[in-house]
Amino acid sequence: MRWSQQRAHNGSRASSPQRAPSWKRALDIACILAAVPAWVPLGLLIALAIKLVSRGPIFFKQERIGFLGRPFFCWKFRTMVPDAKPSLHESHLDHLMSSNCAMTKLDSQGDPRLIPGGLWLRSLGWDELPQIINVLRGEMSLVGPRPCMAYEYARYQPRHRQRCETLPGLTGLWQINGKNRTTFEEMIDLDLRYVATKSLLLDLKIIFLTVPAIILQVCDLRRRRKPAQKVRAASTLAPPTDFNTPKNTSQKHLETAKRGP
Question: Model's pTM, two decimal places?
Fold first, then answer.
């Protein structure tokens, strides 16, 4: 039985969801202040690097869905070219939501929309550093479900929307439990579990386990990219052969981006 089904079986919610307990706000502020010597210099270096390798703004803001379905602007370091088409991600997300496939990132095999170094910024999660602003403004927390896109929220079933009954976060149970190796429904189950059981000790545990989870994610990315690099190298030595093998959805979207309109 899924966590959400068990939760429904045990009875309806006794009260309306709380935006953020006092302990959660205190933990967010304490962690941000304690980490100032780390994230401020790192943020400045990332901003400088983006300016050196790509024309355009340093930051990127995007409307996301937060607590109880309320929209807000989520800040990130820009890792894609300024005119990147969001429709590629939307169709990729449709595929992930309708299938039982692992939630592999669209850019895991390379994406022509990425700026130099953009893939590694995204893999390390450093592109999300500006979301500290969202945390300070009370729109997000350090720990919670990732804020979804508006078009993703519009496709949600009622049980999916229960993940928005707490503040969205930079990290969460999903991130430390496989992330891109999980399916969409498994992500939902992990988010609903957090909504129902969040506590100070759980948040501290998630924050502590986030760094090793990121390291594992980067190692996983390196393993996945090595075969792809060998294939590209081999393709320069021999003409491609069509074995009529169906391509996965991510590859189709990336090839569309490379060809252009």
Answer: 0.78
